[in-house]
Design a protein that fits this description.
Helix content is 9%, strand content 28%. The chain contains 1 helix and 7 strands. It has one helix at 48-59, and strands spanning 4-13, 23-32, 78-81, 84-87, 98-102, 109-111, 114-115. The protein has a 5-stranded mixed beta sheet with strand order 2-1-5-3-4, covered by helices on one side. The chain has a two-stranded antiparallel sheet with strand order 6-7. It is globular and about 45 Å long.
């Protein structure tokens, strides 16, 4: 049996239809040891997206977050992780034992970590390439 560590994931929650203001909810997420993962490249690390998926599937299915390409090409999962803008599917959980995940600032929150980016002018949208795994 593989050894697991637990990371506390503090998520900013907000549903404009029912909540007056945003609030934080903390979840405990078990994560595998790096050596237990199939490939040691950056693409196989247990990521923020993996933690959010674990929360949704095992702890709270009402959590709303963007989850689509898992390659970082769409940038839909971009959010604030520990105060910095990050792509959740490429951001490994660190060893601090706790992370804070918030929606991107400056956008209307649709629910929880999902924001409305439809009003970004096309010329301001960034284009990203898909990086290949070294495995």
């Amino acid at each position: 049996m593989s050894k697991q560590r637990v990371v506390k994931v503090k998520v900013q929650r907000f549903n404009p239809a029912t909540d007056e203001k945003p609030y934080y909810q903390t979840f405990e997420v078990p994560t595998p040891e790096q050596k237990d993962l199939i490939c040691a490249s950056e693409f196989s690390r247990f990521t923020v997206s993996d933690a959010l998926e674990y929360i949704y599937e095992n702890l709270d299915s009402s959590l709303a977050f963007y989850y689509t390409c898992r390659y970082g090409s769409c940038r839909g999962c971009e959010c604030i992780v520990n105060g910095k803008a990050r792509i959740a599917c490429h951001t490994p959980l660190d060893n601090s034992g706790e992370i804070v995940v918030e929606p991107l600032p400056g956008y209307e929150v649709i629910r929880d970590l999902i924001v409305d980016t439809s009003k970004i002018p096309k010329e301001k949208q960034r284009q990203y390439r898909i990086r290949k795994s070294k495995c």
